[in-house]
Amino acid sequence: MNTKMEKIKGYILGLDVSTKTIGIALFEDLGETGKLKLLHHVTPKIKPQPKDKMQELFEKARVFEEEFLNGYADISITKVIIEEPLLRSNNVNTVATLLRFNGMVSRSVYDTLGIIPEFISSYDSRKYAFPELMAVRSKKKDGTSYSPAAIAKKDPVLFGAYDLDTTDKKMVVFDKVCDLEPQITWLYSKNKTLKVENFDMTDAYAAVRGHMNKIGEWPL
């Protein structure tokens, strides 16, 4: 594809939003596929920290605009994909805070880029970004196997080939992104352990790749 056509297609931005860190993935849209141009994060630190939690969220959204969005407002971003907040927490206040901040970031995107964000659930993000993670579960919670007849009636589920007690699903996604993007230099702590910001970035990556495959524009 020639350079002119690539410029017309523009760029697609993916965001994984939490109240601590916003994972960022920027892809160049090449038509039937995308090329990763940036894998990044913004971790807004507000000092002095406001006593009012809502004020702190507003300030974090402002920092995200200043540290990232304003610098990319003129590069022909055509889509913004945001992973929907996971609402399974037993803490109602945590869920409410996540929803509020997600809305603030969405408004920042609209105000700065003039784009209405599109959303994708974490399940669909991973399902469509990495279809190979879909598999029929063959074992029960106690580790015993289902009968062939029972397996034949089951539909594939996300992480179906993994043990039910596999809790570190973010690490599975991280490994998938590592395989696809071997050029990435990841973030490590002083103790040489992966920083949690890596997982925010790979979730943003999966949001774009998953959304674009789901709508049939980047078939995998």
Can you describe what's shown?
It contains seven helices and seven strands, in the order αβββαβαβαβαβαα. It has 220 residues and is α/β, with parallel strands linked by helices. Helix 2 packs parallel to helix 3 and helix 6 packs across helix 7 (197-214). The radius of gyration is 19 Å and the shape is globular. Residues 1-8 have low confidence and may be disordered.
Write the layout of secondary structure elements.
Blueprint: H1 3-9, E1 11-17, E2 22-29, E3 34-42, H2 53-67, E4 77-83, H3 92-113, E5 118-120, H4 122-129, E6 134-135, H5 148-153, E7 157-158, H6 169-180, H7 197-214
Parallel strand pairs: 1-4, 4-5
Antiparallel strand pairs: 1-2, 2-3, 6-7
Helix pairs in contact: 2-3, 4-7, 6-7
Quick synopsis:
This protein is of the alpha/beta class. The chain has helices at residues 3-9, 53-67, 92-113, 122-129, 148-153, 169-180, 197-214; strands at 11-17, 22-29, 34-42, 77-83, 118-120, 134-135, 157-158. The protein contains seven helices and seven strands.
